[in-house]
Specification:
This protein is of the alpha+beta class. It folds into two domains: about 50 residues, no CATH class; about 110 residues, Rieske Iron-sulfur Protein (3-layer Sandwich), CATH 2.102.10.10. It has four helices and ten strands. The strands form two sheets. It has a six-stranded antiparallel sheet with strand order 1-10-9-4-3-2, with no helix packed on it. Strands 5-6-7-8 form a four-stranded antiparallel sheet, with no helix packed on it. A hairpin with a 4-residue loop joins strand 5 and strand 6. The radius of gyration is 26 Å and the shape is elongated. The relative contact order is 0.12. The structure holds FE2/S2 (inorganic) cluster (FES). FE2/S2 (inorganic) cluster binds next to loops.
Length: about 170
């Protein structure tokens, strides 16, 4: 008998019926949905506002990325410039063109990826597509081209610097 009282002590401490604990009312569920939706909307708005209203920092000087033979045709190399947190990607196309872009989509900052043999860069978040030679938007919601860096060679070393060259002269 004493064991039975001890076993049931939790019912006194937590006087909640199992049905009450597991059943979620429509009102509670709607509150939860509103909270989650509101949080996502605020987060997306912050990312969009930051991308649109705060100018990107300029890259100062030239920065070594890798040796030319470290990057096969159709390959990519992700890198960060010292002193910055912006992710970049260096692309060597199958036709031996070298391009460097920010690896952040201009829509909501998802990481973008070069699709080998397609000549395109994909953003998998919302099916955004960019031209791998120019960074221009080909399809999807991205509002602007990918920010680009100039790629320069010093012997077999590949460097990047702030983009100044007109794409038409390449
Ligand atoms: S974040 Fe790239 S398409 Fe939306």
């Amino acid at each position: 008998m004493a064991t039975n009282n001890k076993d049931n002590q939790w019912k006194v401490d937590f006087p909640i019926q199992q049905l009450d604990a597991t059943q979620v009312s429509r009102r509670d569920f709607a509150k939860f949905l509103c909270l989650v939706s509101g949080g996502l909307a605020v987060g997306s708005g912050y990312v969009a506002a930051k991308a649109n209203f705060f100018p990107a920092e300029k890259v100062q000087g030239e920065h070594f990325v890798c040796k030319k033979d470290e990057l096969p045709q159709g390959g990519t190399k992700s890198f960060v410039i010292p002193g910055s947190t912006i992710p970049y990607v260096l692309i060597r196309t199958e036709k031996d063109d070298f391009r460097a872009y920010e690896q952040k989509c201009t829509h909501l900052s998802c990481a973008v990826f070069y699709m080998p043999k397609s000549g395109k860069i994909e953003c998998p978040c919302h099916n955004g597509w960019f031209d791998a030679l120019t960074g221009e938007v080909l399809a999807g919601p991205p509002p602007r081209p990918l920010p680009r860096l100039d790629v320069i060679f010093k012997g077999d070393d590949i460097y990047v610097r702030e983009f100044e060259t007109s794409p038409k002269t390449l």
